[in-house]
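With this grant's support, we have settled on a layout for protein records. An illustrative entry appears below exactly as we store it:
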Amino acid sequence: DSLNTIWNDTKQHDTTRLIALNKIAWFYAFSNPDTSRLLSDVELKMAQEKNYPKWIGNAWNTTGVSYWVEGNYPPAIECFHKSIVAWEKINFVKGLASSYHNIGLIHKAQGEKALALSYSLKSLAYEEKIGNKRGIAESYNGIALQYNELDKNDSAMYFLVKARELWKEVDDPGITGTTCMVLGAVYYDTKNYTRSKELVDSAITYFEITGDKKSLSTCGLQLIIIYNHDANYDEAIRAGETALVNAKEVGSLYNQKDIYITLSTSFLKKGQHEKALEYYKLGIALKDSIINDERK
C-alpha cells in the first residue's frame, strides 16, 4: 500500500515514483507475471519520456524476469538484451552483470552450454569491475561447473581454484568446503587421485567447522571411491561407515543409497561376500523407496 501511495503521489520526485513502481512490478513478476508486465510497461513509458536509461533498463529487466518465470524464454532474452542496451548508455555495471548472467542461465536451461558460458564470462567481467568478492566467487564457481559440463577440466580447475581463494578471503567455510569438494571431484576425473583426496580432506575440515553432516557424508562417499580405486578397501570401509552415520543423522536417503552400493564393492573386493550382498540390498532398497516416493 505504501508503495502504491508513493507511485500515485505526483508530488514525489520522478525517480522516487519509479523506484516504487519497479518494486511493485518486481513483486508481481513471480506471482502474477501479466500484472507485472502491465506495471513495467507504465514504468518503461515514463522512463522513456523522462529519458532515464537506468529505469528503462529496470523496466525491461523486470519484464524479462516475468517471462522467465513463465518459462517463456525467447521474449525473456529479448527483454534482457534491451535492458543491456539501456544500461550500456550509463555504464550501469551492476545491471549489466545481472542481465548477462540471466541470459546465460536461460541458454543453459535450454541446453546451449557454449552460448551460456559466453554470457557467464561477460557477466563475470562486470562482476570484477564491481569488486564484490562474494559475487565474483559465485561467478567463478558457476563458470567452473559450465566448463566441467563441456569436458574442459583444466579451465574448470582454474576457476575453482580462484573461487576457493576468494571464499577463503570472505571467510565462508561452508562454500569454501563445497568448492574444495567439487575441485576434488574434477581432479578425480583427471585421474589425479592423490590431489583429489587432499582436496576432499580439506573440504571435510571446513564442513566439520560448519557442522554440515550432509556434505560430510558426500565427502565420505568421495573417499570410498578414491580408496576403492587405490585398492585400499579397509580405509574405504572406515570412511564409508563414518559417512553413513552422517547421512543417517540428516536423513539423506540419496547419500545413504550411494554409500551402501559403493561400500558393497569394498566388501566384495575384500572377499566379504555376505556383507557386500547385505549392503548392496540395502542400497537397492533405498533406491526403490526413493523412486516410489518420487512417483507419488
In short: The chain is about 85% helix and 0% strand.
